[in-house]
Amino acid sequence: MNNIAIRLGTLILVVAVSAAFAPVALAQASRTWVSGVGDDVNPCSRTAPCKTFAGAISKTAAGGEISVLDPGGYGGVTITKSITINGRGTLSSILVSGTAGITINAGANDVVFIRGVEINGVGTGTNGINFIAGGALHVEDCDIYGFSAEGINFAPTASSELYVSNATIRNNAVGAVYIHPGASGNAFVAIGNVQMVGNGRGLRVEDGGVVLVKNSVAAGGSTTGFNVATASRAATLTLDGTASTNNTTSGIRSVGPLSSVRITGTTVVDNGEIGLASVSGGNIISFGNNRVFGNAGGNGAPTATSPSM
């Protein structure tokens, strides 16, 4: 009888200890790691990293960070929470075929950071980054190329923010960046030091977009460098210290009376058609300090000039 009691007590103790430690074992880490020689069955710690971003994200707490240990291809990923993917300091890449490189479908207050990642669609990937929902997206020091649609497709269902800096978005069949929020929201966008080269178009903004582009280039596109087109809601694009050159059609195009492009310190040269194109009442407002010259179809003219304050 005493032996039975001892064994029963030991069993109860083991169960209690196991239960106490179970939540710790299942807890998500605030920082996880991926490596080219990792394994997604690992806990994604620095000494036992995961193999892919998709494997690491489920083990990373909301607001946490996935860091890259060494050069490698880490696969496409869908993001549903606040997270940072940080590939700075290594050759960190996502290579996909037939799908989006990164899909973001997060909560209204979630903030996502993508840093130092090369995203390659090998000609058949759909969008480099496909943003559906979330509070804000920051894209920093990234190279996005080879997609059949857009480098960045920003189509939030509600009001959201996009910040792109120090990036190259190149050779995407439809365009570099496409801003088109849903009917119930607006897109607030700031783009700085971004090269949009060899895409179908540079930047397109539609209803509900409010966009600032500074110190950036749209060049070598098969259509327009910068384009605003609206149907039922206003959209505004401000170009500050930018350049649009060697695009097959217009350098800058504004379509519809609810579309406004403001230009300051901007260069529009050597495009295949008109430099500044106002279509169907589109507005192009100049601050009088731009350079528009040498466009094959004529340079065009702003629809209004406003002195800078």
Would you summarize the structure shown here?
This protein is mainly beta. Helix content is 10%, strand content 46%. It is built from two helices and 29 strands.
Description:
- This protein starts with a helix and ends with a strand.
- By secondary structure, the protein is mainly beta.
- It has two helices and 29 strands.
- It has a 20-stranded parallel beta sheet that branches.
- Strand 1, helix 2 (53-57) and strand 2 (60-68) form a beta-alpha-beta unit.
- The model is unreliable at 4-25 (pLDDT under 50).
- It has a domain at 201-309.
Fill in the keyword field for this structure.
single chain; mainly beta; elongated; 20-stranded parallel beta sheet; 9-stranded parallel beta sheet; 10% helix; 2 helices; 309 residues
How do the helices and strands line up, and which of them pair or pack?
Layout: H1 2-26, E1 29-34, H2 53-57, E2 60-68, E3 72-73, E4 77-79, E5 83-86, E6 92-95, E7 102-105, E8 111-115, E9 118-125, E10 129-133, E11 136-140, E12 143-147, E13 150-154, E14 160-170, E15 175-179, E16 187-197, E17 203-205, E18 209-214, E19 217-219, E20 226-229, E21 235-240, E22 243-245, E23 252-255, E24 259-264, E25 267-269, E26 276-279, E27 283-286, E28 291-293, E29 304-305
Parallel strand pairs: 1-2, 2-5, 3-6, 4-7, 5-8, 6-9, 7-10, 8-11, 9-12, 10-13, 11-14, 12-14, 13-15, 14-16, 15-17, 16-18, 16-19, 17-20, 18-21, 19-22, 20-23, 21-24, 22-25, 23-26, 24-27, 25-28, 27-29
Strand % is over 45%
Share in helix:
under 10%
Please, what is the oligomeric state?
A: single chain
Summed over residues and divided by their number, the pLDDT gives a mean of: 92
Cα-atom radius of gyration: 24 Å
Give the strand tally.
Answer: 29
Low-confidence stretches: 4-25
Give the CA-based shape: elongated
Distance between the amino and carboxyl termini: 94 Å
SS element count, helices: 2
Quick one: biggest sheet? 20 strands, parallel
Structural class: mainly beta
